[in-house]
Amino acid sequence: MAYETFDSKSFNKKSATPLVTIRSNGKITFNGRVTMQFQKEGVDRVVWLWDKGARKMAIAKAKKDDPRSFGVSYHEGGQARTSSKSFFKFIGWGAAVPVKLPLTYSNGMFEAVIPAEFLQKSADKGSIQTKKRKSPS
Q: Distances from the Cα of 123 to the Cαs of 50, 88, 97, 100, in angstroms?
């Protein structure tokens, strides 16, 4: 088998599949492809969307004054980052190690299907838990 010389200048990392890396502490990193789209659209805040039945999450551009939104920061190396520990707790995220998921771009937002193995079986995913209050006696 003949060797081929790798030419880093012709290898375009930003043309790769859109990916998101999710860490158990709620830190989110987007690869160059997603970052380029965010920058093109002027994204500085995002909202998280959840479809419990389809186990799909979506990330969409948010207005600056949307109280449900999370800030996005841009870093050297072509990565965008955000954080949303509360969202991943809400959906029942249970992965203890960083997970990379492929994203698709549709209707102005990035979407990903969450494999069932990354969601806690015991959590009532997608529903808000509230504490019961004692009624006054």
A: 15, 11, 18, 22
Which residue, 17, 105, 89, is CA-closest to 50? 89
> What's the sign of the alpha-carbon dihedral 53, 58, 60, 64?
positive
Question: What is the share, in percent, of the chain residues with pLDDT greater than 90?
Answer: 70
Domain ranges across the chain:
17-118
pLDDT in tens, 77-111: 889 999 999 999 999 999 999 999 999 999 999 99
Dump the DSSP string for 22-83.
E-TTSEEEE-HHHHHHHHHHT-SEEEEEEETTTTEEEEEE--TT-TT-EE-EEETTTEEEEE
Are 21 and 98 contacting, i.e. CB atoms less than 8 angstroms apart? yes
| Model pLDDT, residue 15 | 54
